[in-house]
Amino acid sequence: MKEKVQVFGRFLSGMVMPNIGAFIAWGLITALFIPTGWYPNEAIGALVSPMASMLLPLLIAYTGGTVVYGQRGGVIGAITAMGVIVGSSIPMFMGAMIVGPVSAWVLKQFDRRIEKKIPAGFEMLINNFSLGIIGAILTAIALKGVAPVVEVLNRVMESGVGFFVDHKLLPLASVFIEPAKVLFLNNAVNHGILSPMGIQQVEEVGKSIFFLLEANPGPGLGILLAYCIAGKGYAKSSAPGAIIIHFLGGIHEIYFPYILMNPLLLLAAIAGGASGIFVFQILGVGLISPASPGSILAILAMTPKGGYFGTLAGVTVAAVVSFFVALPLLRFTGKSGDLDEMKDMVNKMKQESKGNQTAEIKTVYNGNIKKIVFACDAGMGSSAMGATVLKKKLAAAGFGDILVVHSPVSSIPQDAQIVVTHKELKERAAHSNPDAQLVLITNFMAAPEYDQLVESLKEN
To answer: Which of 376, 409, 439, 453 is catalytic?
Structure first.
């Protein structure tokens, strides 16, 4: 069930994350040039509404279609999205996330059925006209059928969210958001659910608190600070470095293993997250675009004029609360990440994986290794960092000719011989590339598996 939820969430966020640059561009134009921005400019500010109502939904639909059926899927996804865009008076982010992949799937099924029936020399003609005809039909259906339904769903969702906002209950969202993050659903929650809601709210009021619900680095910062004081061994020594990567680099995945070592720390994350949201809500704080990655630098860059105090206050309160909840939990539960505990976790992981391709590292690597892939949920944050760390270790050991790349766990290159990923993503990695040998880690910063991998390569 967890794997299925991760896959579905990854699919949703996968339509938004590749387009984050476009969202940031739109957010910067909004922050700078609207009448209440830093440098009001009517001509440039006129870009804001068309970008939100047309450009961003089209990009989402194209990306969703591409995931399902490559470039042809992306083209028909964008064509069909025009139906929901024109047929609605609100930004159709939800509609684009529906019709983009669905229209690509329809075209894919059609192409499969006629693949062997096309006469030689007519391939381009039939391919182009089939895409055009099916696209025109689906666009009309989207205009008359899908857009009205999505508008109704949108109003229902708005009413539900409005109830929590109006009754000051939004901090309760942390009860769901923080555990989901630790299960590596952070991108799915942020970019698959909260970002589309936030973008629509920006269109209405110029900013949105939804961009801060998951991206707030405060809860993770407080937990890592607690490890700096009450931690032991590996966890304590690696926590300062993790703070820099988490708070300034915005890679939140770095602190997830610290919670997984002591699941009671979820209470600290929830308390910190809820406290931060409460402050954001009381002070009327919001961002003008998704902050991705969730770095304090990115958050401040997306903060509208006059909102810096409230943003910093919410992040600070979240960090302080999570710190003071985590500190006694670490001291009195005895699970503070000492070296023996870390080794026990690694050994347990190895025992669980015996009999599979994730057997003990020193026994599995045979032959000439040319390509290693570091995979994470989105393939942009923790995997990029892990790949960099692994490259340095391999180069220092004389294996600089081995190609090390990072990738989303759902689309691991098929020529990868070794895949390094977090143990929470084991099932997805095995399904994505069943032929690759898996190396499962529990801590991105201080994974002993990195050194074990290098030693195993030396022995072969």
So the answer is: 376
